[in-house]
Amino acid sequence: MSTVALELVGAPSALADRAAGLVADHLRAAVAERGTATVAFSGGHTPAAMLSALTAHDLPWRHIHVFQADERVVANSHLERNLAMLRSRLLAHVPVPASHVHPMPVADADLEAAASRYAAVLARVCGEPAVLDLVHLGLGGDGHTASLVPNDPVLAVGDRDVAPTGRYQGTRRLTLTYPAINRARHRLWLVSGRDKAEEDPMSTGCGPGDGAAVPPSRWPTSAASA
């Protein structure tokens, strides 16, 4: 049974600072131990402040690889892309080498092939099977995390690290699968809002069952409205 370190933080600003500090600690430790660090960030609105707060940390950015946990299948220039927030809040302000930024190839017509290519990049950078140092996760109102949405067939994928989803809120997505997320050395759940603080992603139909749902490593949450 995985243990969960649950932290209740009183305000969204404090939550962002605490989460950024945890991300920074994990990335520093990974670089110190293995010479490189790998992190996958999820989308949504909650992580924006955390990403901005992370820019204040003095990190060995040239040794850090940045991946996405999920992305909407929309045009590269679309403002709803998770990458747009990741760039504006974090990547535009820190010296991560361009070759260390790995956007999901959602503009490709063949999403299955795109997912396979992204999985190959993960394997090249993170080993095979791919082991990310840290995966940042959020929690949707319906209990979904990354783009692992209740009742989507992607929940049953057990033999691939990246897969396309069905249509959700108007668009399909690419997402890390449960195996890729569970294999990560650390998982950080960032949850804001009283309703989400009381939510349990294991009880919403998001998990594939049989103990395969994502075990959080650390869960800083805020009961304040986001």
Notes on the structure:
With 226 residues, the protein is of the alpha/beta class. The protein has a single domain (12-207), classed as Rossmann fold (3-Layer(aba) Sandwich), CATH 3.40.50. The protein has helices spanning 12-34, 47-54, 82-89, 111-126, 178-183, 194-197, and strands at 5-9, 37-41, 64-68, 70-72, 101-102, 134-137, 162-164, 173-176, 186-189, 191-192, 218-222. It has a five-stranded parallel beta sheet, with helices on both faces. Strands 1-11-10 form a three-stranded parallel beta sheet. Strands 4-8-7 form a three-stranded antiparallel beta sheet. Strand 10 (191-192), helix 6 and strand 11 (218-222) form a beta-alpha-beta unit. The two termini are 31 Å apart. The model is unreliable at 195-226 (pLDDT under 50).
Number of helices: 6
As residue ranges, the low-confidence spans are 195-226
- Taking Cα atoms only, what radius of gyration do you get, to the nearest Å? 16 Å
Q: Which fold does the CATH topology refer to?
A: Rossmann fold
CATH architecture assignment name: 3-Layer(aba) Sandwich
What share of the residues does DSSP label as strand, in percent?
15-25%
Can you identify the CATH class? Alpha Beta
* Straight-line N-to-C gap: 31 Å
Overall pLDDT, averaged?
83
SSE string = EHEHEEHEHEEEHEEHE
Spatial arrangement of strands, main beta sheet: 5-3-2-6-9
* Global geometry: globular
| Class computed from helices, strands and strand pairing | alpha/beta
Number of strands: 11
The biggest sheet amounts to: 5 strands, parallel
Number of domains: 1
Helix content: 25-40%
